[in-house]
């Protein structure tokens, strides 16, 4: 059993229902939650109320003063109103503005250590993929 599921069960007294049921539950409930509801709820997680800030540092370790600086900057951004609310209108329909010239597979590289394949196309584009047994809309973070 995954660590997060164990934490969910024992620390928060939440049931462990299984990935299939959880995925179906998300598909059923998410269409009924609006962006404005998420934005309103997110107000509870301002640093002035209580939150967790995850930092990824280029150095081996961050000092307490470094972390205080980060929290202070986040608080300042909140007070200034510099952290904009989520804007669904700015989501682009297309990832790229100009459609590339069609190409064919010129080279294929296998990365067996991670089970991924990279295709290098004749037009210079690169396509990387990895076959998984995930559900269509499932994302797993480690």
UniProtKB/TrEMBL annotation:
This is Uncharacterized protein. It comes from Buddleja alternifolia.
